[in-house]
Amino acid sequence: MLDPLPPARARVPPALHGERLDRAASELLRLPVSRSRLSQWIRDGRLRVDGAVVVKPGTAVESGQELLLEPPELEPMGPAQAPAVLYEDEWLAILDKPAGLPMHGTAAGDPRPSVARFLHERYGPRLPINQGALRPGIVHRLDSETSGVCVVALEQTAFTNLQEQFAKRTVEKEYAAVVYGRPRFQSDWIDRPIARDPHHPERMRTVRALAEGVREALTFWEVVQRFRNCAHLRVQPRTGRTHQIRVHLAAVDLPLVGDWLYRARNYGPGLLPPGAPPVERPLLHSSALRFEHPALGQEMRFQVGMPQDMAELLAFLGAHAPAEDQGWK
């Protein structure tokens, strides 16, 4: 399912005469993609009706017309997009994922580079697919814009064992974060359940009590360095909920610098000093990972350095917005 989809051809039968183009194409071409993706391909000019490009999904088709769809080619993965392989053996691999690279596509036919496609191309089609055919080898996930270290499984027993370690919370994860705000303490725990926001399904939110659809979530944070109106934090999530660190930090008025989805009131780019390096993503980096090797039983610990965008901003803040300006020590 990670290989490019071939062109698909079909002829409209009398039973579908007058039907919308996107609905007819979805029924006749039987591609493993959603109708919304198919509609977008039509708008992109990828479907021909009797040889002519039609870009309106709502166009009525006629009996006997020939539909020809040419799905997009896979976008090439440039050297800067590919994750670095820090370690690999017959059971697993450790990757340093760059920011902007998603762990997997959103659906079949997604042409964007991803960690899943990188694994498919590097290790072949026999990777474990317990999380679905679009996620070969994927044991846990980092947000697309989060950089840093992650572990992937190359065979089934390793996948099962690693998932059990994550479920039992024996895997230690550490992140570096640059946040707006002035932490009240040197360190603290955030113990707030998380649920999907019913009004904004792309977002998560903290809630006060456990109920259906609500997951417990626990995050530890510690100040590494304070700046004027910002701070560098070391963060250790003890659970692994969707967007957990981003949601939790925003909930205690320490939102990630660059996070357009989770903001806290009175915080934003205006708090950065003039001339600060541009911020193009939420500044969150998976800096360290510790677990037990699923086959060898030995402790495995991997640590990666700060990515360039975060390192440059931290150096700038240290030079132009030291905490002493606010009386912090």
Written account of the structure:
This protein has six helices and 15 strands. Helix 1 crosses helix 2. The longest helix is centred in the C-terminal third of the chain and has 13 residues, at 308-320. The model is unreliable at 325-329 (pLDDT under 50). The strands form three sheets. Strands 5, 6, 7, 8, 9, 12, 13, 14 and 15 form a nine-stranded mixed beta sheet that branches. It has a four-stranded antiparallel beta sheet with strand order 1-4-2-3, covered by helices on one side. Strands 10-11 form a two-stranded antiparallel ribbon. The protein folds into two domains: 8-69, Structural Genomics Hypothetical 15.5 Kd Protein In mrcA-pckA Intergenic Region, Chain A, CATH 3.10.290.10; 84-326, 2-Layer Sandwich (Pseudouridine synthase). A hairpin with a 2-residue loop joins strand 2 and strand 3 (52-53). The chain has helices at 21-29, 35-43, 115-123, 156-167, 244-251, 308-320, and strands spanning 8-11, 47-49, 52-53, 66-69, 84-88, 92-97, 147-153, 172-180, 187-191, 194-196, 204-206, 218-227, 230-237, 284-292, 299-303. The protein is an alpha+beta fold.
